[in-house]
């Protein structure tokens, strides 16, 4: 922890900068601004929202805008459970930057989600009293294409990385360094701002990483000890609890589920049917496949309309499949996990996942979060291939709290090589500590490191500690 934080401080020039940055961690209660201090553009978007922010959302926006107003690049992780409203918090942060004359970039893992965010933001902007009439692009929403060499920014001030766990470690690193490089080479900033730009357009952009896969605090500190952490707790009013059923995928179990689907559609609901793979595999014949079973499902539910959605389809085909499901032309949508992240169809009321044991607990929790967004009471059915696969899934039947499930996932799978490229197993960098067992020690170490640096930013008062750190290989989140 000390190595992480010391390395972060070493990258800053002045004592004042170091003190300001350290205060973010020592005094998180200071990291807030009142709405009166927001830019006029941010206030307009807040006013245009068709609902009020929860106190947790408002607190999160305040912390982020406090960071944005500092003369230091923000490095913040925004965590929250599925459906807690992180996207609107990020939109408000982008408006704060645009309102002071700069650009914002919003990177998401899938094209479907990019289009959805784009349409959502356009709807909100149309309700605002005035538009963004600069004639220039102030905000860009895209996938990993934003890290392409040909993409350049003139005055980038914030980069939002949505669902950061879906981007590889190297991808995230390249994205950050690209934005840093382009912002340093910026020459101009937009002139329609609320206040003076103070000639600081050369500052590296703020980075706001977002994750709807809740991470236990101990794990977050080990992974992101040099980031500010913001958590949105609770769900916005109106979100329906989702009933979860665990079913064995034998003939009897499948018939039961198919009857549940029929009952749901007859009652006016819409159903997601999620598969682990697109096509049938000779190596894994036991896996249900979306394309292979499309005709069979269409015949079984011949009174209703079935649709198909997967990652190999062309963009216009994916858009059309989702549009038909959203409008109700399609009643049952056969899909792969491409719908796991962010897809929002309030009328969808039932989620069925085949071969559910092939998915991680966090993934299944994400999929379950695609329903329960409208007025209808919703349900989620997880079908296990074998009786042995039922036990691990039972935890989802017991709880819908993403942070509790994340802790269980940590215990079951181990944290993975979090500082490198490996995604599961145990950490070679922590030969003594086990994150799933020693979480409290990690949190105490974080507090102790802050206390030490608070007493001596350059560690001159602690020569032995400084000598020990200098002998260790520098830590790097981003891999080679």
Automatic annotation (TrEMBL):
One of its GO terms (molecular function) is ATP binding. The keyword Ligase does not apply. Residues 253-411 form the Helicase C-terminal domain. GO terms for biological process: DNA repair. Pfam families: DEAD, Helicase_C, RecG_dom3_C. Keywords: ATP-binding, DNA damage, DNA repair, DNA-binding, Helicase, Hydrolase, Nucleotide-binding. This is DNA helicase.
